Amino acid sequence: MEQVHLFTKKLKPTHISHSLPFPTHVLEAFPFPQGAHTMKFEAVDATDNVWRFCLSTRLTGAYPKPVLLRSSWHRFVEQKGLVPEDRVVFFMERDDMVRRYTVRAQRKVMILMGQDVWVDVEDLPLYGL
To answer: Does 15 have pLDDT greater than 90?
Structure first.
């Protein structure tokens, strides 16, 4: 299966304390049940832990404005020790029958030759951080 990058989001204080907005274009990667505005899905992190998230869209307005609900997102934030300026990256693998999601929590550790170097938060001890 090929891994497809869904999106990367640098975290702001409101993402840490509240919900995580998703780009509208990635909704096509999430098969919402007919007529539903919420969908639960699982994503695996860098250490093969499974995280259960709830993705929600609003019922009114010009566009769906998808977000990960705080009830499922905040546990991930706390466990990973995420802070503003960290980032999360979501990927999807798909075959004919199954969709698998992956999530990475990353922190910028340096700038090397003008490029940001991001490391999974689980690997920060390897860098003495």
So the answer is: yes
- pTM of the full structure: 0.91
Range of the domain at 80: 3-127
| Phi and psi torsions of 60, nearest 5° | -130, 165
Letter string b/e over residues 60-88, b meaning 16 or more CB atoms within 10 A of that residue's CB = eeeeeebbbbeebbbebbeebebeeebbb
Q: Pick the more confident residue, 49 or 97.
A: 49
Which CATH number is 25's domain given? 2.40.330.10
Q: How many domains is the chain built from? A: 1
Q: What is the pLDDT of residue 5?
A: 96
